[in-house]
Write a structure and sequence with these properties.
disordered C terminus, 434 Repressor (Amino-terminal Domain), Rossmann fold, 13 helices, DNA-binding, 15% strand, 3 domains, alpha/beta, homodimer
Chain lengths: 342, 342
DNA sequence: CGCCGCTTTCGAAGCGCTTCGACGATGCGC
DNA sequence: GCGCATCGTCGAAGCGCTTCGAAAGCGGCG
């Protein structure tokens, strides 16, 4: 409730001196500055948010656009929203949450009213309506995820292709010969998130390059049983599984393999790749290359702050290299063809 | 980018006339008003957020305090944060997300800088540090959840006691004689959320009143197997289960009962009560009395808006009556003692 | 000694909006 | 026909802050 005028009066200086003492934008004699700071903290002075915004042409607020579809993975979304908020605070920004139908209108509104200094767009679809909108807004915007047309945008995403390739390489290097990919449900893929497709493509290409048999399946429901059955039909000697799917499907995998007498990693090695859940607490923990909300949001916020404060709005795509976390779910296989070498 | 001065000039009226035409706070001649509105929408005029805040002493922003613990149920939290945001928009408020360690400091800051007009406190613990803080803030605050000491607070919560009693009554009325409650993990309860305790107490009391055998168990991990075993030890003729637990435990229940030859509802009836997940897509959908984020947040926002706009800050506790959703997981039992009546 | 340049501080002009008081114009009753 | 109430509009005073330009004070140098 104390205003800058109260502080100025109590410290016996002018309002502008207080302002400069607190912001450090001009040099103030050290003892004056100390006195001002002491008085300010004594009075519990905090600058009035809207007055500061109005005068400084900066709100220190970042809008977070977070759409919610029926098939939304709430836990994953939560993680991204939370991390965005946390990282924003580290840069001294607050976050305004824009959800649902309001995601578009909210972006427009918070940009036009200059409520937000910048926008973070989460859960980007291949063909996302927020892409053309962002181009018209004249408000720094960072996309977390990769739309089809990235012309003029700043985007951050996990390098899903690298993650898929690395998973294949790990398995092939360890002697696996028949590798299955359990992907996302078809409806999810059709709805537009593009990373499942990127994983699909990179997985298949890498398997071809490395010359191993491979197959892909999409779960129907919330468990992996149909997927396992279909994989085994195509790959009778299935010895490696790459997971790029939801938590419920992944967590059901061990038990379902067990019903067929298959044990992880004794009979089948498993690697999760580009997934947003942690596999550490599964009955059998899987090796994983997580889609790490913290890493993505940190990178996104760095770019956004650079755009806001530094005026650097050059379009760019930042692909975050995947990290491999070993939980022991991959073991070396004896060579499939046991003819002695050379 | 257009300012109110641009609109005024284009419409040939003064700034204050534009302001009144748009806000409706004074009467303006209909055709003047129409002209102003036309010009405003043509110019795409939207009032500058901070200028409006500063002049009107109102930010139209509500802070949402959402702590995140290690054992947080992300999906449930997401639902509450999203619903709060959605409902706030219906009242023309935006929401600022305060998470984690910043939950306390953020409340203080957004109140002191008058960034927020009001605060919604989510996931309230029995002994929540945000309670004493709220009492000092002089910023309208609504708690979603019930702390131990509600003195002077405005709180909204599901009537968990009524939900527990109603679940017991349903089962007893349908002839069940041995009812088990699967509660939350002990660590969750000890951490401080109080609704599990309220359910425990009301469940036990109601069972006593109705004169049925009952038992309570807390899961250890993420499935219900230990809980089912312990319930059956105490209640060999277990014929009804009340669930007030997490989604993973609940979703594992049918399969675990099946391993003991028990089928829902043929052998055991099940009612979920005060849970934040939906049971509709379970293999066997359970009857449920959901902890409905939408209902809680709507009620909370109504109270908050009343406090902000109407100045009505009278402390009160609003308990939301539970709704029973029938999925057919409860069937009538033959009377345990089959002596023919009268 | 006077001038210059530096440091430190101050005054005042906004930022774009809301809102209060006032003023001219119009309509009514007596 | 005059006074009075009412309606519609306007001007100006803020809201609390940032920031620019300038003033004041001071030491050093020619």
């Amino acid at each position: 409730m104390a205003t800058i005028a109260d502080v100025a009066q109590a410290a016996g200086v002018s309002i502008s001196t207080v302002s400069y003492a607190l912001s450090g934008k001009r040099s103030i004699k050290p003892d004056t500055r100390a006195r001002v700071l002491a008085v300010a903290s004594e009075l519990g002075y905090l600058p009035h948010a809207s007055a500061r915004m109005l005068a400084a042409h900066r709100s220190h607020i970042i809008a977070v656009s977070e759409p919610v579809h029926p098939d939304t993975d709430d836990a994953a979304h939560m993680a991204f929203a939370m991390q965005t908020t946390r990282v924003a605070r580290e840069h001294n920004y607050d976050t305004l949450l824009l959800v649902h139908d309001d995601a578009l209108e909210g972006m427009r509104r918070s940009a036009a009213t200059q409520l937000a200094d910048g926008i973070v767009v989460l859960d980007v679809d291949e063909d996302d309506a927020r892409v053309p909108l962002a181009r018209t807004l004249d408000c720094p915007t960072v996309f977390v995820g990769l739309p089809a047309d990235t012309e003029g945008l700043v985007c951050v995403d996990l390098n899903f292709e690298a993650a898929a390739r690395q998973a294949v390489d790990r398995l092939v290097d360890a002697g696996h010969r028949q590798i299955g990919l359990i992907s996302h449900r078809l409806e999810t893929i059709e709805r537009g998130s593009n990373f499942p497709r990127r994983v699909l493509r990179a997985f298949a290409e890498r398997c071809e390059e490395r010359g191993v048999r491979h197959a892909v399946t999409h779960p129907n429901g919330h468990t992996a049983d149909g997927s396992v059955r279909r994989l085994l039909e195509q790959l009778p000697e299935l010895d490696g599984i790459v997971l790029n799917t939801t938590a419920d499907v992944a967590s059901s995998l061990s038990a379902i393999l067990a019903t067929r007498g298959l044990e992880v990693p004794r009979d089948v090695s498993v690697i999760a790749t580009g997934v947003s859940f942690t596999t550490a607490r599964f009955a059998v923990p899987f090796d994983t290359m997580p889609l790490d909300a913290r890493a993505s949001c940190t990178a996104a916020m760095d770019l956004l702050v650079k755009a806001i404060d530094g005026g650097d709005r050059t379009p760019r795509i930042v692909l975050i290299p995947p990290t491999y976390i070993d939980h022991g779910s991959v073991i070396a296989r004896a060579a499939a063809d046991p003819t002695p070498g050379v």
